[in-house]
Structures are given as C-alpha cells and as structure tokens.
Automatic annotation (TrEMBL):
<protein>
    <recommendedName>
        <fullName>protein-glutamine gamma-glutamyltransferase</fullName>
        <ecNumber>2.3.2.13</ecNumber>
    </recommendedName>
</protein>
<feature type="active site">
    <location>
        <position position="338"/>
    </location>
</feature>
<comment type="similarity">
    <text>Belongs to the transglutaminase superfamily. Transglutaminase family.</text>
</comment>
<dbReference type="InterPro" id="IPR014756">
    <property type="entry name" value="Ig_E-set"/>
</dbReference>
<dbReference type="GO" id="GO:0003810">
    <property type="term" value="F:protein-glutamine gamma-glutamyltransferase activity"/>
</dbReference>
<dbReference type="GO" id="GO:0046872">
    <property type="term" value="F:metal ion binding"/>
</dbReference>
<dbReference type="Pfam" id="PF01841">
    <property type="entry name" value="Transglut_core"/>
</dbReference>
<feature type="active site">
    <location>
        <position position="315"/>
    </location>
</feature>
<keyword id="KW-0808">Transferase</keyword>
<dbReference type="InterPro" id="IPR023608">
    <property type="entry name" value="Transglutaminase_animal"/>
</dbReference>
<feature type="active site">
    <location>
        <position position="257"/>
    </location>
</feature>
<dbReference type="InterPro" id="IPR001102">
    <property type="entry name" value="Transglutaminase_N"/>
</dbReference>
<dbReference type="InterPro" id="IPR050779">
    <property type="entry name" value="Transglutaminase"/>
</dbReference>
<keyword id="KW-0012">Acyltransferase</keyword>
<dbReference type="InterPro" id="IPR036985">
    <property type="entry name" value="Transglutaminase-like_sf"/>
</dbReference>
<dbReference type="InterPro" id="IPR036238">
    <property type="entry name" value="Transglutaminase_C_sf"/>
</dbReference>
<dbReference type="InterPro" id="IPR038765">
    <property type="entry name" value="Papain-like_cys_pep_sf"/>
</dbReference>
Length: 658
C-alpha cells in the first residue's frame, strides 16, 4: 500500500486496493454453517456494512470482504477487505459482527486510515492516479525537497523537509480536515465529499492559512517577527504542524508564500495526492484584472512605491495532480493551488484547483480562479518615469512577468522548467499602441558582468546607442536599492551620476563600466540579497529620457557538508559529517549554526559561532543516527546575530536498511 512509516498508531491503506487481515477466535472456531461474519466501517456519521463471503467474485468498486482461508473450521481466518476507489478519505472505525442462530456479538477491530491511491491498478479507478513510478516516488513519497527562490538568472535553492513520515503528522493532517468550517457546519456532508480530490484540496488550501478559520499559519510580510518565528527560519513542515496541533489549533506565527506552499505539500502528500512546490518568477498581483501592472521611477532611477499592484520577484504555490470531471477530462492533470492569502475565492482565502492547461489556453471561464493565476504569469508591465507627478517616459513589457516557472526535477536537485506548460509561446500578447515607446532615436541597456557574490564588488555596464543625426549631451543617473521579494523597496544604498557625450549616428554605442564596493552594501544586505538597479539617461537638450533596470540577487556562500564514509550509511548506526563555512564579509560575525534532517536527526542540533573573522574558514563536526532507509537530506544553516543574513547548505544522504 506504499504507506509504511506514515503512522505507528493506525493501519494505513489506500483506497481501491484490497488489504489482508487475520481474525483470531478465542473460544470456538468459526463455523461457516452456523456463523455469518459482517464487517462495518464508520467515518463519523457515515456507516457501511458488508458481509464476508467465500465468493471469488467480490466487486472491487464497493466495500466487500472475501475469506481466503481454505480451512474455515479454524481458530484463525485470513480475510481480504476491498475498499471502493472513490471512498471518502479519513480515519475509519472497523468492527466485526458475528451472527449465529441464537445471538450476535460485535468486536472493535480498531481504526484504519484510508488514503487516496496514486498507485491504483486501473487509471480510471482513483482520480489521483499517476502512471509513472518515478513521479509517484517524487511527488508522494519523497519527504524532502527543494524550493527555488532568487531570480530567474540566479536561482537560490532552499531545502525543505516535508516530513510526512514524522510521528503524528498524518493524524495532524486529518485533524486539519476536522477543524475546517465545512466539517463544523455539516460533518456528514464534509466526510462524504472527502472522496473528491477537488473538494478536499480546496478545504486544505483554505486551512493552511488562518484568515477564515482555525488554520495552520499566520502570514506576515511586515518584517517584524518578534511575536513568532521569522518565515526564513523554518526548515520543514513537521515543526509547524506539530506546533499547531499542540497549541489546540492556534495559528503558527509566521509564514510567507514558500512556507504556506510547502506545508500544504506535506499535507497533500500525506493524504496521497501527488504534489509539487512550484515557483513563478516575476509574479504579478493584478488587483483590477486589467492584466497591467504599473511601476514608477524617479528621474534619478529610484523605484517608487506608487502602485497598489505589485510584482513579486518570486511567488511559490503548489501543483496537485488530479482529474477534473467537473470541467472536462481535457483539463485533468496538474492543478495550481495557492494557500497564501491574497484574494478570496468563493468567499474564502484560497486559490484553486486551477488547471495548468486552462492557464495556457486562457480559459478564464473555468473553475477555479483561472483569471487570477493567468494574470500572475501573463500580465504586462507598464513602466513610467515621473517628474512632478507627470509621466515623462513610458514603456510596456509583455515578457517580464512569469519569465520562469519551475519546480524540483524528479530524482534531481536541479530545477525543471515548467514555463511552456503555463505560457503559449505562439500567442503574441496584445499591446496597447498608445503605450509604445517613443521612436528609438536612443537606446539604453544595463548588463551585469557576472553573478554578484557576497563580499565581492558588483560590476555592471551601461550601454547607450545614439541612432539620430545630431550629437547628444546626456546625463546618466544610476540608483541601487535593496528590496524584499514581495515588492517592498528599501532605501537607496548607492547612486552615481555622469555626463556623457555621443556623436551623431554613433551606432557602435558607448559602454560605461560601474562597480559597487562590498562595503557599500554589506550593512543593508537582506536574506534574499535582492537589489533593484536602474539607470536613467536624459538628453539635456531634448529632455528625452530612457530607462533600463535589472533586479538581481547577491549570492551567499554555501556551507559545505562532507559525510564520512557516505557510501555505507545504514539505519540505527552512528555516522558523522563535517560542515565547512566561512565569513565572506569585511567584519567579524557571530551566529547560530543549526543542523537538521528528517529521518537523520531527531529535532535540531544547534551550536553558537563566535567571532568568525573576515575571510576565516571553520569546520564543525556533527553526529547523526538515521532512523529510516531511503534518500534523506542533511541541511545546515548559519544565522547571523543582529542580521537577517543566513548561510545555507545541504547534502543528500542515501541510507540503507542494513
């Protein structure tokens, strides 16, 4: 049943696949002539009875029981139990009723948890059937993963422990369903509807955030996390789910988009629905549904926060695999579900399931929330330079939003590009001709020389081309601002200005090199390392202006993890690893080193790091005892004191049973 390790308290089986149990009779043996056996399964108010039979023709599409023992006059009886492939998911109470001529006895056999079944024998049996074995291993059974952040040209991978095999997590996932408003309002109807993956996914999606209910996580983008845990400090879902359960279902503080999506991924994988965490880079939040996001700059290249709409450098959501008989089988497959509370859907803060195919085909008439997700990957960006509240330059970019959509590859830690599944490259976006740029008598571009690395200079070049027949006297303004991935801008940390002279028809262009010293950004560097860099070129005579901008992230050095004798890692045996890290900055740092790994380390191992000098390299040994076989991930983070900066690293570890 592919359910080993999901629970130590309950039998866990997948619907539509028979399972065997053995009945032991204490006093008299079972007599097929005198006794009849009837099972009952109960989920809340839902109740079903079915007899045990010797027949070999038991329907696989409803509850049933088949006696396997050849010698029925025995103190024990082997039985095969059938569950329907569309049975509601949940914690069932199983009972046996023995009826004889004179009396009837009932016996509680215990509880069983029934899950969705991507391994269903027939593709039409379970609506979450996934035919490829390697995808089932990745999207259902894998308890660790990679979340991608940063920018499209410099992906920042972050490990995450989904932890669906951690003790009590499956039971907590079922409790999430029981705490939903749908269950509180009508538990019988809710239990019955749990057979449907579309219904269940919307319930879970709304319950991951706490805006409408007793959900798991409270979102916070203010920067003040003093009442809880900073979203960047979470390394896995299990701690969050356990905290929610222990606190009597009070929301855990705090989450942001990747935390919401990763926790929902844990819940969905635990319940048996194939799921993967997806990142949309340059993700639009279109509040007025016109597919236009407005951005504004000053004459000196400072980006201004004048618009209620926003483009996040990245936004993280979930894809779940399921059929969609409600809107047509052609839209079955991967569905977007986004638990981050942004806009209401059907009166509650959830999004989806939205068919990926419907987004690509712009089927905005389909359920659920296709227009909103379509805008997140397809909106155009209107950019304007403003002076005294007047627009002095404008342009429209139809390619920036949704420039990369990706997820962790199957059996790989590299990113799999999903962009073509969301965006149709053969359809040309419509442009409003009134927003076209002025005649291209001058062009400006901005180019990074290399991927910026913490502790090193940021080097870039500005190229200006004069395409007209007159000489030009130009003013160059450059502005660099730190920013948060969720649109919020910080103050300018570096700026420069220069005078430029260009001759007529100087098509060969003029390139100006620039450098930003690390001492100028180290004190304001954020965890994501995101920078908005913009240049405005102004013709001092014609007052024509051109803008070029680039948003990039500064790469932090990785923590190197070396596992000793890594080809011989076995369960329940002590092993060790060496962590190597260094200080890339020009000032000493203190911090806390944290090491964790689901299935490798119980909880977290933490140690303090004092006075790590500029450029200094240190090593730290850590011991671990694997608890279960399979591919596990050892991850480490070094959080700086009095700073939002974090160094990270991870190592894949293959654990053998013996």
């Amino acid at each position: 049943h592919e359910s080993e390790g999901l629970s130590s308290k309950h039998l866990v089986v997948r619907r539509g696949r028979p399972f065997k149990i053995t009945l032991f009779f204490k006093d008299e043996p079972f007599s097929p002539l005198m006794d009849s056996l009837v099972f009952s399964a109960q989920l809340g108010e839902l109740y079903v009875q079915f007899p045990l039979t010797f027949s070999r023709h038991v329907s696989a599409f409803k509850w049933g029981g088949q006696i396997l023992s050849e010698n029925s006059w025995s103190q024990s009886l082997r039985v095969l139990i059938f569950t329907p492939p569309n049975a509601p998911l949940g914690l069932y109470n199983l009972q046996l009723h023995i009826k004889s001529q004179a009396q009837q006895h009932s016996y509680a056999l215990g509880n069983l948890i029934l899950l969705f079944n991507p391994w269903s024998w027939r593709p039409w049996s379970d609506e979450v059937h996934l035919s490829h074995a390697d995808q089932r291993e990745e999207y259902v059974k894998n308890d660790s993963g990679i979340l991608f952040m940063g920018t499209p040209d410099n992906l920042l991978p972050r490990t995450w422990e989904f932890g669906q095999y951690e003790e009590g997590i499956l039971e907590t996932c079922l409790k999430i369903l029981d705490m939903s408003p749908q269950h509180s309002k009508n538990s019988q109807k809710d239990n019955l509807c749990r057979s449907n993956a579309v219904y269940l996914s919307r319930v879970v999606c709304a319950m991951i955030n706490c805006e409408d209910d007793r959900g798991v996580l409270k979102g916070n983008w203010s920067g003040d996390f003093s009442r809880g845990v900073s979203p960047s400090q979470w390394t896995g879902s299990a701690d969050i789910l356990k905290c929610w359960e222990r606190s009597q279902c009070r929301p855990v503080l705090y989450g942001q988009c990747w935390v919401f999506a990763a926790v929902m991924c844990t819940v969905m994988r635990a319940l048996g629905i194939p799921s993967r965490v997806v990142t949309n880079f340059n993700s639009a939040h279109d509040t007025n549904a016109n597919l236009i996001i407005e951005e504004f700059y000053s004459e000196t290249g400072e980006k201004l926060q004048l618009s209620k709409e926003s483009i996040w450098n990245y936004h993280v959501w979930l894809e779940c695999w399921m059929s969609r008989p409600d809107i047509g089988s052609e839209f079955s497959g991967w569905q977007v579900l986004d638990p981050t509370p942004q806009e209401k859907s059907g009166g509650i803060f959830c999004c989806g399931p939205c068919p990926v195919k419907a987004i690509r085909e712009k089927r905005v008439d389909l359920f659920y929330d296709v227009p909103f997700v379509y805008a997140e990957v397809n909106a155009s960006v209107y950019t304007a330079i403003v002076k005294n509240n007047q627009v002095v330059h404008q342009s429209l970019d139809a390619n920036r939003v949704g420039s990369l959509v990706c997820t962790k590859g199957v059996n790989s830690y590299l990113a799999q590009d999903l962009t073509a599944y969301y965006k149709n490259p053969h359809k040309t976006p419509r442009r409003n001709s009134s927003l076209h740029e002025e005649a291209r008598s001058m062009s400006v571009s901005l180019q990074l020389d290399k991927v910026p690395v913490a502790g090193q200079s940021i080097s870039f070049s500005v190229t200006v081309v004069n395409n007209c027949g007159t000489s030009r006297r130009l003013k160059e303004h450059i502005n660099a601002q730190m920013k948060e991935y969720s649109h919020n801008l910080l103050e300018t940390f570096w700026e420069a200005s220069n005078m430029i002279k260009l001759g007529p028809y100087e098509g060969k262009s003029l390139t100006i090199e620039h450098w930003i010293d690390p001492s100028q950004y180290e004190q304001v560097l954020r965890d994501d390392g995101l920078v908005n860099l913009a240049v405005v070129i102004k013709d001092e005579v014609t007052l024509e202006r051109k803008l070029a901008s680039e948003e990039f992230n500064i790469t932090m050095p990785w923590i190197s993890i070396q596992v000793e004798d890594e080809s011989n890692i076995v369960v329940n045996k002590a092993h060790s690893a060496i962590l190597v890290f260094h200080n890339p900055f020009w000032v000493p740092i203190d911090g806390v080193l944290t090491v964790c790994g689901s299935g490798l380390i119980q909880g977290k191992v933490q140690s303090k790091v004092y006075q790590l000098q500029p450029g200094e390299k240190r090593e730290q040994a850590v011991n671990f005892i694997p608890q279960m076989p399979g591919t596990k991930v050892l991850q480490a983070s070094l959080e700086f004191k009095d700073s939002p900066l974090v160094l990270r690293g991870f190592k894949s570890v293959l654990v053998r049973a013996t």
